[in-house]
Amino acid sequence: METTLNKTSQVISPEALLKHWQGHRALTRRVIEAFPEEAFFNHTIGGMRPFSEMVLELLGIAGPGLKEIATGKTASLDEHREHGNQKSKVLEMWDEATEEINTYWDQLKLEQFEKSIRIFGQYDGTAWSSIFYFIDNEIHHRGQAYVYLRSLGIEPPAFYER
Fold it and tell me: Is the distance from CB of 93 to CB of 80 less than 8 angstroms?
């Protein structure tokens, strides 16, 4: 007689996923630092937004999204942050979001990752798929920032140094 256990399949541990995500966040932080102040807020190519606006989007998603996953309390997506056109303020907010992610990550239970959710009250998926979106979206915008930096004659940080 065969016995089958009902177990959640797992390819990567939550700890390894957090480390992976935080590696991406550290790289994105170095990309923000590489921008000259003026270019961070104003440089665009082909109708894309300045990188500062993309970073505000990332700030509106990562910490608040993970908080929603951990607590179950739905919040609206809010990409607006006061920064006074100061890159140092944006970096400060980035660091605060990193700590927020660490705080709420510690509250997650393994079974929550496969739970169906509607993040920000509008996007259906699972906790896993939402977290992967947070990471993928950051990578996408960082790629746009690499194009901006190269157009400014600045060598971006190596993408593999996370």
Answer: no
Q: Do 87 and 40 meet the contact criterion of CB atoms below 8 Å apart?
A: yes
Q: And the tokens for 139?
A: 């990578």
Tens digit of each residue's pLDDT (9 = 90 or more) over 76-105 = 888 889 999 999 999 999 999 999 999 999
Q: Which residue type sits at 2?
A: E
- pTM of the full structure: 0.91
Query: In the 8-state DSSP scheme, what is residue 112?
Result: G
**In order of start, what are the domains of the chain with their CATH numbers?**
19-75+92-151 (1.20.120.450)
Taking residue 67's Cβ as centre, other Cβ atoms within 10 Å add up to 17
Residue 102: both structure tokens together: 């660490």
- Give the position of tokens 């920064």: 83
- List, for residues 4-62, the tens digit of each pLDDT value: 445 556 789 999 999 999 999 999 999 999 999 999 999 999 999 999 999 999 999 99
